[in-house]
Amino acid sequence: MSTSQDPIQFLTLAEAHAIDGAKLSTMEKFMTRITISSMRIITKIAQELSIHAESLSAQQIVQWIEHDSQIRKEQGEDAAFLKWTSPHPDLDFEDTRQDEVTPANLSSHEKFLTRMVISAMQALVAIAKDYSIHLEDLTAEQVIAWVERDAKVKREQGIEAAFLSW
Question: What are the pLDDT digits (tens) for 122-141?
Fold first, then answer.
C-alpha cells in the first residue's frame, strides 16, 4: 500500500485558532495569517534553492512561483506546490504596478500572491532576527507571539503595528 505525503498546510486549524485567540485587531490577525502562510512558501523556496530563507531575493521568489505555475499548467495541479483553482480562471484584472513581479509569466492572481509573499519577507526577516534564528526555523507560534508583542508595544506608543507596514 502506498502512503501519500500529507500536503503542506499553509495554516492549520490549530494555528488559525491561536491567531483568533491572540490579542490582535482584525487586521493584525489577517496579516498574521498571511505572514504564516507566506512563511511556508518562503521556506519551501529556500529548501529547493538550498539557501537560508532570509537570503532569498524578490527575484528568486518570483522565478520560483513562475516555475511552479508552469508545472501546474504542464503537469496539473497535483504536480505543483501551490495548489489552487480559480472558479474564474480567465478573469484577470489589470496589473498597473511596475515592480519585479510585473513582467513575470503569471496570472493576476499569482502576481497578487507573489507580492504578498515578497512583502511578508520583511516582517519574517525581522521576526527571525529577534529570535536569533533562521527564518525557516520560525514556528507559527513564534510569529503569533512576536506580532502580539509588537502590536502591544505599538498600541502603548500610539502607533500602528510595525509589521502592518510591510
Answer: 999 999 999 999 999 999 99
